[in-house]
User: Fold this.
Amino acid sequence: SSGGATALVTSDLGPSTLGSAVRSDSVPRLQALRDLGTLLGRMHEAPVSTSAPRRPVIEAVASLSRRCPSDVLDRLAPALAIITDTPDEASAVWCHGDPHLDNVVLSGTRQTRHLVDFTDAAPGRREADVAHALVMTDAHSQWDRHALLGAYPHVVNDTHLAAWSAVLTVSCWTHASPGSNRTTWSHRLTELSRRTPHLFRPHSGHSHAPHARRRAR
Assistant:
């Protein structure tokens, strides 16, 4: 305007999310994962200005180290080595920062999917954002991963994707509140360390982190 003011025009998309649609069985889980993979792919195609401030990986590691028990962080060393081995400037994309099914709003008669909540958006590595989606939706089974990654249109580094999944799972376990939430993330961390043992150092003595147990037959 002539006075130099800037206005941001928004609209209310309503309360329905992809997460609530899955929980009510109105949208199949695999379809929801495909929708999320497609939306992330579109966001990662947005051009990144060279002047846009990056969020260095070392900051994420430092933030985790301040809250994570030292023995758990030590076990995570192989995964941390992988994600810190690549320069921050390498193939940066606009990352959402918190991609999960409840951050996708369904709107209108056609139930158009809208990715929302860009509080944590910043240029970063695509593998970190895709891993965040996998971790927050617990999409680690073969079919779940295939649904999300099959709809994601860009090439990802599988080694980096697995390492970021390990780091983000430990982060979620670290920040989980005591009770059922912490138990949920303990189980997920146990299962992940069983599937990808190369990303974790072997146990040595007592640890705060959960470890794999045999399933009762």
